[in-house]
Specification:
This protein has 28 helices and 16 strands. By secondary structure, the protein is of the alpha+beta class. It starts with 5 loop residues before the first helix and ends in a 6-residue tail after the last helix. The C terminus is likely disordered. The protein is globular. Helix content is 53%, strand content 9%. Helix 11 links the parallel strand 12 and strand 13.
Length: 604
């Protein structure tokens, strides 16, 4: 899909009333100025999901989900931003003139469409073959695996006959360019410009993208052919490291259950689905990639790895931990009995024992720590080996509370003090505050308190947004995310003379900050207007005072440097020049957060 013009996006946003759109998914009831309902993104009994008709945003005070009408459609329908805009445009009858497409982009798009079309035709061909007499071998095999008719239909399972040119003849009758069929991976080229069917005498698994379009295939041999499982080759539309089997059938179930189960193979997935466990996907014979985990994060707020109950399954799960930590997607590990895979377990033990194991699944980080500690031999070298093995993962844990807990486990099991572990791991974000600073309220890492305070006030009282520029405050912001929010506040206020909150949330990239802003905008302000204004003036006064002190320090340093130069004290000159550079860097970076001057403006 080509890029959509920004003006058209704005037209769609203003036309697609968020109450109408959300109301078609969630039962809403009016309470005061806003609407309340049960959150569609997590299970709850008391409504905490709030929709503002005035501000055209939603926010769940339970799970923190928030955003504009586009964010809501993206989450509920598992769509990209462009797809969400297109869907809403179609719903509200808005034409989508798009930015001019380059010749190269058009060529690629048209080829992708042809490849998907050929894959879709092949899926229908294989599906029909399964029902014919030639497909009896595949039907009997599915019966032995306990796969029911509904599951066969839902996944459009099929059969590729033994013939070397069955699919080729079908595509020829359908007037498909066989060269393009080769590019789609359905045919294999041979010398002389001829080709033959890639899949023969195999049970066929169509692989579909999030929108249900067939992009590739997996085929399971029904004789002694090798490999036992054969996938389509990489094509313009099919990449194993970017595709998960079962996406199209799982997405709604993942949203309802607030979790995605990840298994290793086709039949593991089908066996669970056959027992009405539908929130399940599988990689295509490869290890989980970072892109896979990003896809999982769009499906549900957490994942559970259900891998084979052997050392290989455990190691495969542990290798993926880094990706989950980087994407901040909570992940648990379901340990199956030794030698069993999900298909074996659920067919032998049944659904209830499986669901019991699922409820007992442990966070993968805890499993990783246990595995790392299991080889500890009590020696100093062994102790250091364990600490250095877990260091990379611990540094990726974004919760100070969780880091503290894991450090205590290491302290208890290794006999190493937390202080020594912190020194080894350099986990500065969880060091205890010094005695001198213990009276101060702990701040969130990376979110300077005075900057957060200014933005919070301006969200509640947007009429004061112009004061950001009047006081040159943004020049002194330390955190790039808050500075960007400040610039967006100014931009939207200048464009419309008011705060366009829905537009603002569309542009804020940091999800944590976006959720904070939406919750502030729907809360009752913690300050009366006059108190908020006074607090804002205190923040600006502190910034101005700190900036002046820095400038005065620079002036005094330059005078000292001139004196040292006259007296030819090179050592003193070097020290003063280093201090001068540090002060200049502080001034340029806006590091003016002087605790003494800004303490009056601390957040409540």
């Amino acid at each position: 899909m080509t890029r959509i013009n920004r003006d058209v996006i704005e037209e769609v946003r203003t036309s697609a009333n968020i109450v109408d759109v959300v109301g078609s998914y969630v039962a809403l009831r009016k309470r005061g100025k806003n609407y309340l309902g049960l959150c569609p993104f997590h299970s709850e009994k008391e409504p905490s999901f709030t929709v503002s008709n005035e501000k055209q945003i939603f926010h769940c005070f339970g799970c923190g989900a928030s955003g504009s009408v586009f964010d809501f459609v993206m989450r509920t329908r598992n769509l990209t931003f462009a797809e969400a805009v297109s869907e809403l445009a179609n719903r509200f009858g808005i034409p989508l003139p798009q930015e001019k497409e380059t010749a190269q982009a058009k060529k690629i798009r048209e080829m992708a469409e042809r490849l998907r079309q050929i894959n879709g035709m092949a899926a229908e061909y294989f599906s029909r073959n399964l029902l014919r007499s030639s497909g009896e071998i595949a039907r009997k095999y599915l019966q032995t695996r306990g796969i029911g008719e509904e599951t066969i239909q839902d996944f459009q399972l099929g059969y590729a006959p033994k013939s070397w040119d069955g699919l080729k003849r079908f595509l020829t009758r359908e007037k498909v360019d066989l060269k393009v069929a080769v590019q789609a991976g359905m045919l294999v080229p041979k010398s002389g410009g001829d080709s033959y069917d890639r899949f023969r005498n195999r049970l066929m698994f169509p692989i579909k993208d999030m929108r249900g379009r067939t992009v590739g295939f997996g085929g399971r041999a029904l004789d002694d052919s090798m490999p036992k499982y054969l996938n389509s080759p990489e094509t313009l539309i099919f990449h194993k490291g970017r595709t998960l089997y079962g996406l199209a059938t799982a997405r709604e179930a993942c949203r309802r259950n607030n979790e995605t189960l990840v298994v290793e193979g086709y039949f593991d997935l089908l066996a669970l689905y056959n027992r009405s466990i539908h929130q399940v996907v599988a990689p295509l014979g490869t290890a989980l990639t970072l892109h896979h985990v990003r896809m999982l994060s769009r499906l549900a707020p957490q994942a559970v790895l259900v891998f084979d109950g052997d050392d290989a399954g455990m190691q495969a799960a542990l290798r993926s931990l880094e990706f989950f930590l980087r994407e901040k997607l909570p992940v648990r590990f379901l340990p199956l009995p030794e030698g069993m895979d999900p298909d074996d377990f659920i067919n032998k033990e049944g659904k209830e024992p499986f669901m019991q194991l699922l409820s007992e699944a442990k966070p993968l980080m805890e499993v990783f720590l246990e595995q790392s500690l299991s080889n500890y031999d009590g020696s100093v070298e062994g102790r250091l080996k364990v600490v250095r093995a877990v260091t990379p993962m611990l540094r990726l844990v974004d919760s100070p509370v969780a880091q503290e807990g894991y450090l205590r486990v290491l302290d208890r099991r290794l006999g190493v003090s937390e202080e020594a572990l912190r020194a080894e791991l350099a986990l500065t974000s969880i060091r205890r505050p010094s005695a001198a600073a213990s009276h101060k309220r702990e701040q969130k890492p990376g979110l300077p308190e005075w900057e957060e305070g200014i933005i919070r006030i301006l969200v509640n009282y947007p009429q004061w947004i112009p004061t950001l520029e009047e006081n040159s405050a943004l020049e002194s912001f330390q955190n790039k995310d808050w500075a960007e929010v400040g610039r967006l506040l100014v931009k939207y206020y200048q464009e419309g003379g008011k705060l366009n909150l829905s537009g603002l949330l569309m542009d804020v990239q940091n999800e944590q900050i976006r959720n904070l802003i939406s919750s502030w905008s729907l809360e009752t302000s913690p300050w009366r207007e006059e108190d908020a204004h006074a607090r804002l003036r205190e923040y600006f006064a502190g910034i101005s005072s700190s900036r002046r002190r820095l400038q005065d320090d620079l002036k005094r340093l330059k005078e000292k440097i001139q004196a040292a130069e006259r007296s030819r004290d090179e050592k003193l000159m070097a020290e003063l020049l280093a201090e001068l550079q540090a002060k200049k860097a502080a001034l340029l970076a806006g590091e003016v957060n002087d605790e003494a001057n800004l303490s009056k403006g601390e957040m409540v």
